[in-house]
TrEMBL record:
SMART domains on file: HTH_ARAC (SM00342)
Keywords per UniProt: DNA-binding, Transcription, Transcription regulation
Pfam families linked to this entry: HTH_18 (PF12833)
Leader sequence residues: none
Phylogenetic lineage: Bacteria, Pseudomonadati, Bacteroidota, Cytophagia, Cytophagales
Start and end residues of each HTH araC/xylS-type domain: 181-291
Protein's recorded name: Helix-turn-helix transcriptional regulator
InterPro entries in alphabetical order: Homeodomain-like_sf, HTH_AraC
Amino acid sequence: MQKKEIVRSVSPFNNELRLKGFNVFQIEEDSNAVRNYSRKDFYKICLTTGESIINYADRSYDMTGTILFFANPNVPYSWETLSRSYVGYTCLFSEDFYKPSDRTESLQHSSLFKIGGTPIFKISEEKREFLNGIFRNMMVEQNTDYAFKDDLIRNYINLIIHEALKLQPAGNFDQVKNASHRITNVFLELLERQFPIESIDRPLQLRTAQDYANNLNLHVNYLNRAVKEITGKSTTTHISERMASEAKALLLHTNWNVADIGYALGFEYPTYFNNFFKRITGTNPLAIRPTEVS
């Protein structure tokens, strides 16, 4: 099938990150802020000093001082900065960058990155200086022409991971203040992360409640109960409605044919997509397509 893409404006930073699969940078001082991170495909390690509240999966962490934080792209989170002075380092990297061969363990199974694991560690002043040095070394290496710099950077990432595994996890968190709310928020944010669909070469991967439960390391019945309790809709209904919304956007704003749109949304046959679309929207796909792209 011929590759078709939606042309979107992308910043040079995003282009560089996508090409290399890695970027490291220093966090500058800033004022109070709330950040919702939703960058697809990239794992994140942050070393920060300041006061913050981090909402991650079904837990909230109230942190002061220096922390080391590990983020999985499949687990949405928000980070509220409370102190006016907030500094440190961040590195972003893709699974493909970190895992160049099938012999390397997937980050999804790491205790630092999986949803049930521990993503945050308190860091002493002595350890902070040591880790600062590793991040600075990565910043230097990413701008060199050294032929094996990717291998060296992977070694630095592994060194940070091993330092974290030796530490005791941060215990100052409030788990299941309202478990159903947090599970639902995680699901809805993960659902939104699957969109927009930008290429037929990368069709939608998560299409069922079971797919989302597997990615969130939850039993599907637990996920379904939580979502239904909070929203009044089933997990499947949320997924179907979001897929239909994306289908409408692709019909209105691209010149992809209906078969291509169906394939991009995970339907093997156009008939399956047409039946799905009519069931959700009450009309067929071509009925909403502008005349000039039909």
